[in-house]
Structure formats: C-alpha cells, structure tokens
Amino acid sequence: MSTVVPPPDAAPSAPSWCAGPYAEALRTGRGPLFLRRADGWLLPLDVERWCAAPDPADLSALRRCAGPVLDIGCGPGRLVAALAALGHRSLGIDVSEAAVRHTLRLGGTALRRSVFEPLPGEGRWGTALLMDGNIGIGGDPAALLARVAQLLAPRGLLIAETAPVDIDERVHVHVDDGRGRAEPDEVFPWARLGTPALLRYARAAGWQVADQWSAGGRSFVALRRRDSRGVGGVREARDVRGPRAVHDTHPVRSERPVRHDRPVPATRPARETDHICTASHTAEPANSAAVTSSQRVRNTSAGRVVDRS
C-alpha cells in the first residue's frame, strides 16, 4: 500500500478547532464561525446546518451510499447518526474532541483521528464521505484523493461536496469567530474546489465519475475507484465485507488531557489494541499502513467569501 506524505506546509500544529471558538460553536449549535484567510477575508462556516438534522441535500448524498460508510471530518455527527438510522454501518472521524462527543450523543460511532492516520477497515470501506467542504482537508486535493483510495474497497464510492462555483484555491487559514477570539498563529492549509476542479484531480488519479448533481444550492460528485491498480497504487483488498472490530488508542475521556492531532512518525500497521469511541457498537478492524499528515477543520459548502478585513 502506498504512503501519502502531504507537502511540508501541511505539517500539523495544535489545531484551533479542538477548543476555543470551534468547540464553543458546536456546544451552542450556532455561529458565527469563519475560516480567516491571511488577507483578512472570512469564509463562513455553516455551523447551524451542521448541528441540525440532515436536510434534503444531505439525504440526496446519503441515499447513494453503499456498504459500510466512513464520514471523514464528521463534525457534530448528523450524517453518522442518520446513516445508522438508515441501517448503514458507519464511522465518523474528526480531530475535534467536541465533534466526537457530539456525535456520540446523537448515537453515532466516532473516532478522534486524522484521515491521514491509521484507521479501522482500511481498504474495505464501501463509501467515504467528504461533505461540507471537507475536500479541502490538508490543502492538497491530490494527496487526499490518494488517501481515500487507500481506505475504500475495490470499486468503492467517494461522495464529495464541492463549492457551487468554479474554483481551485489553496489557502492558509485559521478559525475565527468574527469577534476577535482567534489564534492567528494556528494557521493551516485548506483547499476550496468546485466540481470542474475536483473532476480534473479525480481523472488524473484514475477515478471514474459515477454521478454529479446539485440539491438545495449545493453541489456533489460521486467518484468510484477503478480497481486495485487504477487509483493511488492501492492493492486489492481480499475482504470487502467491511471493517472488523478494533479499539482506538485515543478514546475521548474527560479525565484525560486531549491529544492534539499529530503526524504518525513512520508507516506502520494499525494496532490490534486500538479503541473506537462508540455509543453502542464498534466498527471493524484495519489491516493497512499508516500515512502522515493532519486533518483540518470543516469548511462551509456555501463557497461564500465575506470581506471583514
């Protein structure tokens, strides 16, 4: 299995969405919350929608899911909980302790982990979700697509939400509540992609376009892994029935200090001692190798930019 190493400027720092304005926004279920670019522009984050029940646009994506589903950057867990209600085995991953706790309260299964760290069921997920602008995680769409290919089973499906405008933008941002409560030194790379840009990256990496659609003013693309040789150098997985149960080494517990997301120092298999945070059940185990980087905060799907400089 190949190893994805994002560029040096994607090196992780103590992410500001693990506490402060982001955690507070998830606690209250409302914003304002933004990603502030270096030039002072503010990219709005749709906290209210993330903390509400899935809307018709969300459901248009969930209806296309097949097999066990991995929600990458699950946030407060509305999609993980909805998938469970629809009968899908699902796991949400997020670097935010507040997001994982919120997902558990909704009855979902969640793990505090970066997409670039070892995960349960690598090579056996039926569907991966990159919703709410999470195609921007890490600021390197090509590296993220290669990593998702490692996680999916052969012919697995990636459903990604794109910006509703034609854009291919790499930026450095930090989380800001619009009232000056931010940590400007906690800057991380992010990307914003419209559908044309995502399709260019996907075709270059050997993905097949399965579907593209719009709903509720939002845009979506479904991509399919061609085979074990067609995307990201991923080896064919023998067991495509879904992940088996393991435990994550970083359970969310209030009595222990929160570990900030950090890179895996070397490629290694996932450990059988790992723990998964779950409300009532466990996800299944991983057999694959690790990769290095960090997962970033969720972005807005609206693609709007507000000048607050």
Number of helices: 7
List segments where confidence is low: pLDDT < 50 over at least 5 consecutive residues: 1-14, 232-309
The name CATH uses for the topology is: Rossmann fold
Mean pLDDT: 76
Number of domains: 1
* DSSP strand count: 13
- Taken as a percent bin, the fraction of beta residues is 15-25%
CATH class, please?
A: Alpha Beta
CATH superfamily: Vaccinia Virus protein VP39
Helix fraction by DSSP (H/I, runs of at least 4): 10-25%
What class, by secondary structure content? Answer: alpha/beta
GO molecular function, one term: methyltransferase activity
Biased composition (Basic and acidic residues): 231-275
Protein name: Methyltransferase type 11
Pfam families: Methyltransf_23
Brief summary of the model shown:
With 309 residues, the protein is α/β, with parallel strands linked by helices.
Provide an overview of this structure.
The chain is of the alpha/beta class and 309 residues long. It has one domain (17-301): Rossmann fold (3-Layer(aba) Sandwich), CATH 3.40.50. It is 19% helix and 23% strand. The chain contains seven helices and 13 strands. The protein has helices at 20-28, 47-50, 56-62, 78-85, 97-105, 141-151, 195-204, and strands at 34-37, 41-44, 69-72, 90-94, 109-112, 125-130, 152-162, 168-176, 188-193, 208-215, 218-224, 277-278, 306-307. The strands form two sheets. It has an eight-stranded mixed sheet with strand order 10-11-7-6-3-4-5-12, with helices on both faces. The chain is globular, with a radius of gyration of 17 Å. Mean pLDDT is 76; it is low at 1-14 and 232-309.
